[in-house]
């Protein structure tokens, strides 16, 4: 039986960092589902496909190859796109792209396959609600929107992504709105999720809480 840790929550709450720590320290495979939606958005930009061009999107999904490496590198159709998927152009369209039903259906199927017979930590928006409703551990990470924008601004600076704090704040607010109101796969707290607010907590503190929860559940599962 595989062991699944689902981490959901809005952008900039520290999901990515926490998932990486869990993966490295507790030996689970890390799957960043946001990176998958970003790959689809990037490929749509590359092929100049509009949001309402369903047939073209279907073709794109048939041919797409997304490879998430253990070290965090992301390959799209064999090409390293680790940095490109974080660009402003992709960030601007990824939320509407992720609202398209055929894209969600395809990504959810890929995600379920990635979690088959493996111990994984999967982070996203709908992991505990849709992708793995029976996940062993469900965490919903939250934080104040200004704190989240600040964190994303500092992350981007490190990665040489040129976006102002105001631009990031606007982008996050818009995405929150869109992500929470999607018809399918909307961001919401699963009934049995444990909610953790990371606004005033250091990442190690948040990690510590989650590690405890995972260890306890592993003991119960035997
Ligand atoms: O986590 P992120 O910011 O890289 O996610 C990019 C976008 O993809 C975000 O707007 C929400 C969407 N997303 C989603 O709809 N479902 C997921 N499981 C993960 C991400």
Helices and strands, in order, run as EHEHHEEEHHEHEHHEH
List low-pLDDT spans: none
Biggest sheet strand order reads: 2-6-1-7-8
Helix content: 40-55%
How many domains in all? 1
Distance between the termini: 11 Å
Oligomer: single chain
Shape: globular
CATH fold naming: Rossmann fold
* Count of separate DSSP helical elements: 9
Binned strand content:
5-15%
Structural class: alpha/beta
Report the biggest beta sheet as strand number plus sense, adding barrel if it closes: 5 strands, parallel
Tell me the CATH superfamily. P-loop containing nucleotide triphosphate hydrolases
Chemical compounds bound to the protein: 2'-deoxycytidine-5'-monophosphate
Would you tell me the overall average pLDDT?
94
What is the alpha-carbon Rg in Å? 17 Å
CATH architecture: 3-Layer(aba) Sandwich
CATH class group: Alpha Beta
Question: Got a strand count?
Answer: 8
Written account of the structure:
This protein has one domain (4-208): P-loop containing nucleotide triphosphate hydrolases (Rossmann fold, 3-Layer(aba) Sandwich). It is 52% helix and 14% strand. The protein contains nine helices and eight strands. A five-stranded parallel beta sheet has the order 2-6-1-7-8. Strands 3-4-5 form a three-stranded antiparallel beta sheet, covered by helices on one side. The radius of gyration is 17 Å and the shape is globular. The model has no long low-confidence stretch (mean pLDDT 94).
């Amino acid at each position: 039986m595989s062991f699944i840790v689902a981490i959901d929550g809005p952008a900039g709450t520290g999901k990515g960092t926490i998932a990486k720590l869990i993966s490295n320290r507790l030996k689970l495979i890390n799957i960043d589902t946001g990176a998958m939606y970003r790959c689809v958005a990037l490929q749509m930009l590359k092929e100049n496909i509009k949001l309402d061009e369903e047939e073209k999107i279907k073709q794109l999904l048939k041919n797409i190859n997304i490879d998430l490496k253990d070290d965090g590198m992301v390959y799209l159709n064999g090409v390293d796109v680790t940095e490109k998927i974080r660009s402003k152009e992709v960030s601007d369209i990824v939320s509407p792209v992720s609202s398209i039903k055929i894209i969600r259906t395809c990504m959810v199927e890929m995600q379920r396959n990635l979690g088959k017979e493996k111990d994984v930590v999967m982070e996203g928006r709908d992991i505990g609600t849709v992708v793995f409703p029976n996940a062993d551990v469900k965490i919903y990470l939250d934080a104040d929107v200004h704190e989240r924008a600040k964190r994303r601004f500092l992350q981007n600076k490190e990665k040489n992504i040129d976006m102002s704090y105001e631009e990031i704040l606007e982008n996050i607010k818009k995405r929150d709105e869109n992500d929470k109101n999607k018809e399918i796969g909307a961001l919401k707290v699963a009934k049995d999720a444990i909610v953790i607010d990371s606004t005033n907590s250091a990442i190690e503190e948040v990690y510590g809480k989650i590690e405890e929860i995972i260890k306890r559940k592993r003991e119960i599962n035997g």
